[in-house]
Design goal:
Largest sheet: 7 strands, parallel
Number of domains: 1
Distance between the termini: 37 Å
CATH superfamily: NAD(P)-binding Rossmann-like Domain
Order of helices and strands: EHEHEHEHEHEHHHE
Number of strands: 7
Radius of gyration: 17 Å
Structural class: alpha/beta
């Protein structure tokens, strides 16, 4: 198992991509701290991991609340004794045309997608150095390079994640902490399930994907395991696009 003996925090681990990564990490031998704003969702992920013989605990922390970061990290240390992997997966997306932009949507989106991810990484890094280094993985989006209509603030937040990754990677490399991102394409989750239930919208999206299918959260797990494992020890400051070729068109 590629992550045997490792301890990971996965934010937004109660559903979608976060849940798939948490379960995938546990399958590879990691103990997982599953964080989610919805306690029942976090517990559901933990239940699935434990049912398969894995180790996990549930925590409910809003990553935009910087004062709560200490509690999240403390939970990992108290339960499992170390911290080796952080996956900044928690994220939000709101539909809002530019001409109707609101500061509330800006603050909430950047607070979780960028500010929270940055400062949680900064809080986790010194802990990782005590245990010889670690891996920090940010779940971004193809919209870090491709703007999305009516979701400008979301796209801006993800573009910020790209530079966040490069900046952290540059400064943390000497401490043996690798920082990378995964940018998924069209992945079917609760965030987009309603929109993709429209057959016309679904068909239009498929036309943009050379592989001709919508991704599943499990399609992200392989890249997430690779970046968390020793196999990626010479990889830092980069983004892996898992998009079925969407950016090719």
């Amino acid at each position: 198992m590629r992550l045997d003996g490792k301890v990971a925090i996965v934010t937004g681990g109660g559903g979608g991509i976060g849940r798939a990564i948490a379960i995938g990490y546990a399958h590879e031998g990691a103990a997982v701290v599953v964080d989610d704003l919805l306690p029942d969702a976090a517990e559901a992920t933990v239940g699935r991991i434990r049912a398969n013989g894995g180790k996990a605990i549930a925590v409910s922390v809003d990553v935009s609340n910087l004062k709560a970061h200490d509690a999240l990290i403390a939970a990992a240390l108290k339960e499992f004794g170390t911290l080796n992997i952080l996956v900044n997966n928690a994220g939000v997306e709101f539909h809002e045309p530019v001409l109707k932009a609101s500061t509330e949507i800006w603050d909430r989106t950047l607070g979780i997608n960028l500010r929270g991810a940055y400062f949680l990484s900064c809080k986790a890094a010194p802990v990782m150095t005590r245990f010889g280094g670690g891996k920090i993985i940010h779940i971004s989006s193809v919209h870090d390079v491709e703007p999305l209509r009516d979701r400008a603030i979301y796209s801006i937040s993800k573009a910020g994640v790209m530079m966040l990754v490069k900046s952290l990677a540059l400064e943390l490399a000497e401490f043996k902490i690798h920082v990378n991102a995964i940018s998924p394409g069209a992945i079917l989750t609760d965030m987009n399930r309603v929109g993709l239930s429209d057959p016309l919208e679904f068909a239009k999206l498929l036309e943009l994907i050379p592989i001709k299918r919508i991704g599943a959260p499990e399609d992200i797990v392989g890249a997430a395991v690779f970046l968390a494992s020793s196999e990626s020890d010479y990889v830092t400051g980069t983004t892996i696009y898992v998009d079925g070729g969407l950016l090719l068109l």
